[in-house]
């Protein structure tokens, strides 16, 4: 099948899915957190049915699942997980992409107020001469993660159009609310997702391959002080803000997000809410290394005990909860073929492999906690979570080729 036909189908699918607003809402504790995700899920369920998949379902949490029975003699069962939501970064939830044909390397007026500068975004210069999908400057583009959805759906379409191609048993899960704590992947019906390993397509530029993410925990420090009028506060007032100040001062500034990179972990104080009586401080702990991750948690418990002894009149409580694990921790001799296949296919397609430790998590980070090894590969897009996000169509096509090769039956 001609490359142009496939690219046209990829773009058609991408534009179709980004046209459905599906921004998640962190303030809403329900799953899914937004109505648009349900609407997108219903569209995908219909499309999956048209593509001939079996066991299509949408559960009460908006998770769309389906299965494509194997064609051939292979034994592996493979999964793909992509998320329905786009991120809320204070921009419009309505996405209006524009395609710049044969990009010439110059600045682009995304709208009358927003300019895409090639000087500020020099990575775009690698795509001079390519067709590129940009935003209109009012929203993110939504390649995170609708480029993945379009990729998967186009690969399934291709397999339907080419019945001579054998493929493995393929399981699909489209999940909500990845952007707000990997909530949706926790709601997958794993009785309907019996895979040997799975993949996400949720990182950026051409060639990225990720099988190492943070171990992640979130925590809350709660402090109840004692209020007092200034005329009688000496010896009586216990200010929760000053106790929180002591807590923060005992953290290592060199191990905070603004001062770390690569595999360096951090503790990040994200929110403080207080009055003269009660204070709540929220924080995140991240580290690729499990031992260092556990030591960071232990240190926070330790300094909390110090504060309790220092401020005996105050009520001080800390809670820490693990959020997700490093994907690499679930890799073993049996499932590491998932990464080996990616490297093999990248070489076959002459894609330079860029293995990086992700300073974040994917749905695969949660899946690793239930024993499903789930490496991650590129969408082809740049500038996720920004109105300067862009997606070179040739990179999207190459990501599709990776997906298609992974789906093909290798009799493994």
From TrEMBL:
Keywords assigned: Aminopeptidase, Hydrolase, Metal-binding, Metalloprotease, Protease, Zinc
UniProt key word 4Fe-4S: no
Family annotation (Gene3D superfamilies): 3.30.70.360, Zn peptidases (3.40.630.10)
Catalytic activity: Release of the N-terminal residue from a tripeptide
Name of protein: Peptidase T
Keyword Iron attributed: no
PANTHER family: PEPTIDASE T
């Amino acid at each position: 099948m001609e490359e142009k036909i496939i690219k046209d189908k990829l773009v058609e699918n991408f534009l179709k899915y980004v046209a459905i607003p599906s921004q998640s809402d962190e303030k809403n504790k329900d799953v899914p957190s937004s109505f648009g995700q349900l609407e997108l899920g219903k569209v995908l369920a219909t499309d999956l049915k048209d593509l001939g998949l079996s066991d299509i379902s949408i559960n009460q949490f908006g998770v769309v699942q389906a299965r494509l029975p194997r064609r051939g003699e292979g034994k592996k069962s493979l999964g793909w997980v992509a998320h329905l939501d786009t991120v809320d970064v204070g921009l419009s939830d309505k996405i209006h992409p524009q395609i710049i044909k044969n990009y010439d390397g110059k600045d682009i007026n995304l709208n009358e107020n927003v300019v895409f500068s090639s000087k500020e975004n020099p990575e775009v210069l690698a795509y001079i001469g390519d067709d590129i999908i940009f935003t209109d400057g009012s929203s993110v583009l939504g390649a995170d993660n609708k480029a993945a959805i379009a990729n998967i759906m186009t690969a399934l379409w291709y397999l339907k159009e080419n019945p001579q191609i054998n493929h493995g048993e393929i399981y699909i899960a489209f999940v909500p609310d990845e952007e707000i704590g990997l909530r949706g992947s926790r709601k997958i019906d794993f009785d309907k997702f019996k895979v040997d390993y799975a993949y996400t397509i949720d990182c950026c530029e051409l060639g990225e391959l990720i099988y190492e993410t943070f171990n992640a925990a979130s925590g809350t420090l709660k402090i109840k002080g004692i209020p007092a009028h200034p005329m009688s506060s000496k010896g009586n007032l216990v200010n929760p803000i000053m106790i929180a100040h002591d807590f923060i001062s005992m953290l290592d500034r060199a191990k905070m997000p603004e001062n770390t990179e690569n595999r360096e972990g951090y503790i990040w104080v994200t929110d403080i809410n207080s009055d003269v009586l009660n204070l709540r401080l929220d924080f995140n702990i991240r580290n690729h290394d499990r031992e260092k991750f556990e030591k960071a948690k232990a240190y926070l418990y330790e300094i909390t005990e110090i504060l309790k002894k220092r401020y005996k009149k105050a009520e001080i409580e800390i809670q820490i909860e693990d959020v997700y694990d490093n994907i690499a921790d679930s890799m073993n001799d049996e499932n590491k073929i998932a990464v080996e296949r990616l490297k093999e296919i990248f070489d076959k397609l002459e894609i330079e492999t860029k293995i990086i430790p992700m300073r974040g998590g994917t749905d695969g980070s949660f899946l690793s906690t239930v024993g499903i090894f789930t490496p991650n590969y590129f969408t082809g897009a740049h500038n996720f979570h920004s109105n300067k996000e862009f997606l070179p169509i040739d990179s999207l096509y190459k990501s599709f080729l990776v997906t298609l090769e992974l789906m093909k039956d290798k009799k493994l």
